[in-house]
Amino acid sequence: MTEFKEQNLAGARFEESTLRDAVFHDVDLAGATFDNVDLSGATIRGARLVDVTLDGEIRNLKVWGIDVLPLIDAELNRRYPGRERMRPANADGYREAWDLLEQLWGETVAKARRLRPELLHESVDGEWSFIETLRHLVFATDAWVRRAVLGEPAPWDPLDLPHDEMHDTPPVPRDRAARPSLDEVLVLRAQRMAIVRALLANLTDERLPERTTPVAGPGYPASESYVVSDCLDTVLGEEFEHRRYAERDLATLAARTVGAGS
């Protein structure tokens, strides 16, 4: 076992490394950044958690012995009306959720159009720009609807943008340098949203628990069988959460514009 004791590792970078079952005792992690890390089963005691931000896939999180997720979930639903509708129980619920998403995204795009076009390529606090967010949602539809559910082996457009944590997976494109216009990306978005709308129009309750037929060829997601409802839930979650992030960042950009003009 490698042991680091009384050593100064400030500013060190651990990338694609395994620290599974490691023990951190009397360690200073102030200001540390944990990005795309697996903390499943971690136990933290005697911690000083002040001004900490935690995002990601969080389940069974106990603070002082209390599962706080139901409390957080209820608060998020209160703050963001419609969020509770993103886990439908039947086919009609999926159609209602998609109708709401189309309405919400229409409002968000209208806000984006009021900003200078170059701001839509600007990152806020290291997050994706508005254009990159739309490109990622095109990718999400291509991956989980066109490939996983509809069985298209390679549904990608050159502007598809996978999540950063995904390793390069040919033939899936990943052009971070592309700078398409808002209108160019919205054409792709409209096409993909129409595909989802058509799929949901014919969706039945019986289809939801069925498993997809594995698609041939490399790509993302992997060539496996998936539960149809899981695929659709992924798309709904991506659409709702990325719209929430986009609203947050557009507000920041709009405030900067007002400040610069005053």
TrEMBL record:
Gene3D superfamilies, sorted: dinb family like domain, E3 ubiquitin-protein ligase SopA
Pfam family, one: DinB_2
Organism domain of life: Bacteria
Segment forming the signal sequence: none
DinB-like domain location: 101-245
Family annotation (InterPro entries): 5peptide_repeat, DinB-like, DinB/YfiT-like
Name of this chain's protein: Uncharacterized protein YjbI with pentapeptide repeats
Organism listed in the record: Kribbella shirazensis
